[in-house]
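## retry 2 of 3
previous attempt timed out at serialization; input unchanged, resubmitting
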Amino acid sequence: MTDYDLFNIHDLDPIPDYFSFQDTIDSFQDLPKKRPIDQLDESSFLPGTLEYKKARKKRQNRESASRSRARKKIELTSLDTTLSQIAEINQKLTLENAALKAENGMLKKELEFYKGFVKNDEPKMKGNKASTGWLAVSVVLSMICMVLVTHEEGGQAVNMGGRSLKSMKQNKFLNNEESNYSMIMVVVLGLAAAACAWKYFHK
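## retry succeeded, writing output
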């Protein structure tokens, strides 16, 4: 190439495109990849060397971190299960609490009803007590009347069996007076008993 050709460079033929930028990138991608030295395990180094010890330590750290992540995952799974169980128990307790509150309200209403019922029946109960008292008095008076009548008849039988006819005639007047008194007492007590019984049945 002469000096004249240098001044007329635009008249020269273009240089052939033997390679391009994309070809350069593809060529770099086809190169074999090497693992970084930090990712190599101890089998890639000679035992006893510093690189071997570092690689072994890093492998142990990776295994420890992997175990730690596994433990954390198990713990998180256990916590999720526990939280689900607690939420279920809480829901059941909430429903039971609502049911107990409703039952407590019903029992309170029932208690108030029975309190009002007892309060309204107190006068009747007092009246029943009074009627029972009248009945008791009537029974007692009736028993006294029966005792008097029985005693009178027994006394007359004893007198008839143990005394002579003459003695009976002599004491006839006294016996008549005693009999009249006893009969009056029986009649009075009988009337009182009848009055008490009437009070009881008409209360």
